[in-house]
């Protein structure tokens, strides 16, 4: 597929550099990372060659997996294997990783799927593994920065089970699985990069 015809998620081009700056620090000792909800695959092909010390395992639901495959075929990397099929509410692949990463998924998934994601983390995380999530959240019931309230309304218009999640709720889900939040990084465009660790 011609690079100009690849599926494009414009936000990845805007947010990839500030995310990478954090991941280079947070994943300095990581060996294998599972990315949940790789979307088009644009984050995977950007991050993997710049984190060459680890293996970056992309994943996506069956209906979108062809988009990830197209990007990986156009921009291969030695540490970027074929993407896995993964629906958080279905069967997870038999995989062990020290880091799980996801970007812009927690507000898109139904709340029940977010709960399932956290419940399944111990199934794939080894040792003192970490879960890193990027995207908008509410803190103390308040939206972070201008625009997120309108974005939340738009999300719920698209699907009533979508929406910007409360950080306190995410912390509760994490704690139930033996993870505690160790970082909350404020990134551009009113997004957070959150880190929970076992």
Spatial separation of the terminal alpha carbons: 41 Å
CATH superfamily: Vaccinia Virus protein VP39
Helical residue percent band: 25-40%
**If you consult CATH, what is the topology?**
Rossmann fold
Given the C-alpha coordinates, what overall shape results? globular
The string of secondary-structure elements, in order, is HEHEEHEEHEEEHEHEE
| Name of the level-1 CATH class | Alpha Beta
Strand content: 25-35%
Mean pLDDT: 95
Strand order of the largest sheet: 2-1-5-6-11-10
Name the structural class.
alpha/beta
User: For the CA atoms, what is the radius of gyration?
Assistant: 16 Å
- The total count of strands amounts to 11
Uncertain residue segments: none
Biggest sheet features = 6 strands, mixed
CATH architecture: 3-Layer(aba) Sandwich
Oligomeric state of this protein: single chain
Tally of structural domains = 1
Number of helices: 6
